[in-house]
Amino acid sequence: MDCFGGVRHLLFSYVLINGILITLQTKEEVLLDMRATGGELGWLTWPLDQGDRPGWEVVQRTLNGSQFYSYSVCNIGEREQDNWLRTTFIQRRSSASRVFVELQFIVRDCNSFDGASLTCKETFNLYTSESDADVGMTFRKGQFKKVSTIAPDEITSKNKMRINTETRVVENLSRNGFYLAFQDIGACVALLSVRVYYKTCPETIKSLASFPETVAGGENQALQEVSGKCVENAISEELPRIYCTADGEWVVPVGQCQCKPGYEEAEDSCQECQPGFFKAEASSGKCDPCPAHSQGPEPGALFCPCDAGFYRAASDPITGPCSGLPSAPRDLVATTTQLSAGKLLLTWKNPEDTGGRDDITYGVKCQRCEDSVCQACGEKIRYEPANTGLTDTKVLVSELDAHLNYTFTVEAHSGVSEFAGQAPPSSSALTTSLHFTEPPKITTVRMVEQSPTSLSLSWDVAPRPRAPSQPIRYKLTYRKKDDKIDNILIVQKLEKSSVQINNLTPGTAYLFMVQAISSDGSPGSSSPEEQFDTLPEGYLPHNKTAVILAAAAGGATVLFIVLVVLFLRRRRRNSHTRQGPEDTCFSSPEQLKPLTYVDPHTYEDPNIAVLKFATEIHPSHVTKQKVIGAGEFGEVYKGILKAPGRKDVYVAIKTLKPGYTEKQRQDFLSEASIMGQFTHQNIIHLEGVVTKFKHAMIVTEYMENGALDRYLKDHDGEFSSFQLVGMLRGIAAGMKYLSDMSYVHRDLAARNILVNNSLECKVSDFGLSRVLEDDPEGTYTTSGGKIPIRWTAPEAIAYRKFTSASDVWSFGIVMWEVMAFGERPYWDMSNHEVMKAINEAFRLPAPMDCPSAVYQLMLQCWLQDRSKRPRFGDIVSLLDKLLHSPESLKAIADFDPRVSIRLPSTSGSDGSPFRSVSEWLESIKMSQYIENFTCAGVLTMDQVLQMKNEDIKNIGVRLPGHLKRIAYSILGLKDQTSTLSVFAV
Ligand code: AMP
């Protein structure tokens, strides 16, 4: 008997779902097949002993030429027949709870038996009984439940045999197996075939999901929900589902798997896109051919990388075409009709080739040149409507100084310019032919009038040929001749070439010096110091004395003259007092800037120091706009200062967070007390403080480009040595000013230099506690102080000897940071390693591309003997010299790529060679070029090592700084045998 290895049948049927005809396959698993078993059925018949009226009997038959066994019974004419035929134990398999019983049988027509029609039956009954185990020959009628009465559709007569086929369902099966039984109640029946089977929904793949074979009607469910699994390389958000009907049919598929990016559907599976095709998303669609100016050399591409020289903007879809850079704008013309008013109209034409894009904008750059030394024009110049992001091909430039030469460059940008490094500038740069003049110079200073307590002075300015008539201002400095040099008083911002100074000490010699300042803020040379004396106490002014002498000689007429002179003098005095405080007096504390820095701690009450050195601002004049940084005491905001009678200015606002102690408030404000003492172009300017209200604030000028270290990192390779040295010159000038005022900064580092949008660098961070608390670089020393080790001179680390000479050491480190575009000094060496190396006379090596003269200056700043280090005055002079002869910057210091590019550049992070081109590019911070390398087919490090400078350029690395960084790194990779060393001096 074949119960278990049953014959499998596949049946096909069709279902309409949502109007779509779906082919469904059903599979049958046969549990019992009487016909296939042959003669040895071994079914049980009951009653066991039936004498000469046998019940069910095995009969061998021949049908269509083949022999088979059947069970027959034919006890007609006998009353009360009750003959049972029971199958062997049928194991229920899987979870089939619903089986089909298909019967083939013949029933004889009762009418064909003479005289037996009264008792003769033409039906029989199907029973079933469940059991967990085979009960063998035990048979109890009462345990069987009736399934159905089986009646023939066609009855078999004497002449004609009719075979009937009936199928019945036995449901709700739950035990290990079951028996079927056939009860005859007096019919003439031949049971030709009994087939017991259950149905399954066969394993299938639909909508790119595979569904396992599932027993139909299992778990007593007419419709069984089955979850599928996406085929390989297909995905779906929700698992697809389908239902298996009780008849073994899959119906109502829900959800769909889709081939993942880089794959497309092909006959129930997902195949990689062919080379030259791509698919960016999971979808049912096909792979698309690579769009214009891109290529996909590998199969399975998610997108097609751009051809060399073509790019996609960040907002371009990755599936879209790549575009080239726009060519330069054409025909740049300057119209100088309003030059006298410092205005100029620049116009130009669209580039010939837009690179296939329509997002072209223009940027205008201005350089101011003197003696062939050029620098950025600075923020003073105004552009209408703007100097960047222009969509129109013109711009009005104003606030130009008529005595300087300007060069304007117009660049065309498009969405892809940022990826190409640099936009091509306009084909022609425009130079205005405007002339240059010397800064104003004071020739003579003379005394106009004297009294015991006042002196009136006036002075002359040297005529400046070709100079425009610009307003000049003057700075007057004076002191008592016998006083110490640091008791100098300054009267600033004089607008006229004369002044009267009151409240002087009678009979005292004073020394005066005048300096002219041109309207762009550039100072002229100072006059020599001139001495003028006040008259002794009780002395009449000398013109009065003359009058008295004349009176002695002249009588009443002369008395009249005296009266006239006195009248005239009073009038002159009155006219002086009308000139306003700036011109005549120095009673405002703001104008009395000490020439030596005063430590606010020397004031018993630090609040008084703040009042003395800083202007109080009403908080209603300060508007905070957005947070730009985090200071030690609270947030730093960008904002606007609207002081009455002044133009609105952008400012940085340092705030004191709530919950501060009085000590913290005083420490916070001490920075303003210090900053307020300084007036210099390269020192961050204090606008004022808010101290009289709950929320204390320090308001300073706003520096658009923020901290220098971050700014340089973000613009790596984008500035020339000339520009970098220009920045250093500014920092050095600021430091010279501080050291002249005997102020020691102690925390000079690129992170404490701020940059505005004219690239002017200004020294900042003057908090009293800053070195101890504020600086994240600060490291505790054994004496408990906190010191930024890698910026600090050895004597300051060793025994806290902080001087301007130790500031010079730090300046040397700032020089290195600047020339290395914000690289961390000593890279990832530990503080301990740094101190050890310095003690052993090692010094940082020259950064890449660093002019030799600049590196020499660094090494001078790092001399162990602090008295041998240059002073800030020397540094400013030297840097000025370099800037005045840019040729001097051409000689480049020796550079060793193995030490100057970050250490890992010679190997992968674990010391092994780089595993991929992208890993290598990331390590040298050039990952923006990964696509360029890929597109150019440079896919392995072996290929990288073969590259020449020309090749690097050809794959689209244009910025000279980047080109060198990559080339040097390759050089370093080739020579891996060398070990790291820091230069010894
Ligand atoms: P500080 O407390 O001075 O170190 O300031 C914290 C951060 O605020 C700095 O690193 C700058 O990013 C920013 N910041 C401070 N002052 C200014 C300023 N005057 N202009 C622009 N940003 C500033």
Give the SSE layout.
Elements: E1 8-17, E2 20-33, H1 34-37, E3 44-46, E4 57-63, E5 66-74, E6 83-86, E7 90-91, E8 99-107, E9 124-131, E10 145-150, E11 164-170, E12 177-184, E13 188-201, E14 204-206, E15 209-211, E16 214-215, E17 223-227, E18 229-230, E19 234-235, E20 241-245, E21 250-254, E22 258-259, E23 263-265, E24 270-272, E25 277-278, E26 288-289, E27 310-311, E28 323-324, E29 330-335, E30 344-349, E31 361-370, E32 373-376, E33 382-384, E34 394-398, E35 405-413, E36 430-432, E37 442-450, E38 455-461, E39 473-480, E40 489-494, E41 498-501, E42 509-517, E43 523-526, E44 530-533, H2 542-554, H3 556-577, H4 581-584, H5 606-613, E45 622-630, E46 635-641, E47 649-655, H6 662-675, E48 686-690, E49 697-701, H7 708-714, H8 721-740, E50 753-755, E51 761-763, H9 770-774, E52 778-780, E53 786-788, H10 794-799, H11 804-819, H12 831-839, H13 852-861, H14 872-884, H15 897-900, H16 917-923, H17 930-935, H18 941-945, H19 949-954, H20 960-974
Antiparallel strand pairs: 1-2, 2-13, 3-6, 4-5, 5-13, 6-12, 7-12, 8-11, 8-13, 9-10, 9-12, 13-16, 14-15, 15-18, 17-20, 19-22, 20-21, 23-24, 25-26, 27-28, 29-30, 30-34, 31-32, 31-35, 33-34, 35-36, 37-38, 38-41, 39-40, 39-42, 42-43, 42-44, 45-46, 46-47, 47-49, 48-49, 50-51, 52-53
